Amino acid sequence: xxxxxxxxxxxxxxxxxxxxxxxxxxxxxxxxxxxxxxxxxxxxxxxxxxxxxxxxxxxxxxxxxxxxxxxxxxxxxxxxxxxxxxxxxxxxxxxxxxxxxxxxxxxxxxxxxxxxxxxxxxxxxxxxxxxxxxxxxxxxxxxxxxxxxxxxxxxxxxxxxxxxxxxxxxxxxxxxxxxxxxxxxxxxxxxxxxxxxxxxxxxxxxxxxxxxxxxxxxxxxxxxxxxxxxxxxxxxxxxxxxxxxxxxxxxxxxxxxxxxxxxxxxxxxxxxxxxxxxxxxxxxxxxxxxxxxxxxxxxxxxxxxxxxxxxxxxxxxxxxxxxxxxxxxxxxxxxxxxxxxxxxxxxxxxxxxxxxxxxxxxxxxxxxxxxxxxxxxxxxxxxxxxxxxxxxxxxxxxxxxxxxxxxxxxxxxxxxxxxxxxxxxx
Length: 426
Hints:
It contains 13 helices and 13 strands. 37% of the residues are buried. The chain has helices at 3-28, 37-41, 104-114, 142-145, 156-169, 188-200, 244-261, 296-307, 310-314, 338-361, 364-383, 395-400, 412-425, and strands spanning 54-58, 63-67, 76-79, 83-91, 94-102, 130-133, 174-176, 206-213, 222-225, 228-231, 233-238, 266-272, 284-291. The strands form two sheets. It has an eleven-stranded mixed beta sheet, with helices on both faces. Strands 9-10 form a two-stranded antiparallel ribbon. The protein folds into two domains: 39-51 and 100-336, Zn-dependent exopeptidases (Aminopeptidase, 3-Layer(aba) Sandwich); 341-425, no CATH class. The protein is of the alpha/beta class. Pfam families: SpoIIP.
């Protein structure tokens, strides 16, 4: 076998291996969490541990947020008013966040939804279900349940039922999976991913993982909204997944509209280190309803108010109001991050093509020569009028042709080898 043929076969083999790996990764993407370099070095998501609270302050020492989760540099907070903060340093249980500015998307959504009048009569126009499950199935509410944790049957299930019932009353199909994922440890999200994948088989329009927080102060979430005492909600977006921008845009829309009809039912959006299985679809969110020191009834009423915003934001019920932004589930709507993903695909394609060309050519100089010859012929044939061309020299002629003084023909040796191989085979 000649050197040229050997290199071509190796190149084709490597290309096939690459395609096989891509197919395998696509097939396993649903059952395995999205991988990132950061996730290789960090611990798994471990949140809502009672007593494990981080206070986030701005650069002037004012408290912005309190969360019962690991906080990392780079985490971000979007307040209901549209203020955008990013964590820049952490010392013990206190994080310092820098004010980035007012978020233009939230300001635009807030302005639009504040003027939106939604028809009272709601007519279902989409049959896709909303998928709901609980990663931390032990989470409970102390004043009502008697404990912050009840393994396999926490009070969080009743909060989930309140969300389900309100959505159904609004004309939305719901697929509620009550599979427990105890214990409440670092691997809970790996176990709940199997549940999320099962829900994905029914082609949901959104996925909600419902939790409660672990902040000791009940008044941090307690508010009097729409003539009732409720527990506020927080929307959490994992920033280590390829759909992060789409998830975040969905969260902004949901917070903005929910607060326009039941202000301020959504406390904030928190983008945290992790993926929370949100790489499965662009409308996957983690919802925290109150904390363990709120009553379960406060959480049930709070999540019911949040549910009122879901059908409109997803475009599930009622005629779309004139001028309303297309729901993120609309195929004609621009999905944040789409151009970035396309850029990665194009870059990887060019990289793979360049590697194949280099392997098949055998050297960098020959690869450049072939690429130059190819584009020269293609552009010449495209822009110039067609004219008769001299017949190409056959391989034997190339093998015996004498190059001009000082000129090296990069194909001469290969042509001679191919000609000699054919003579031997004959």
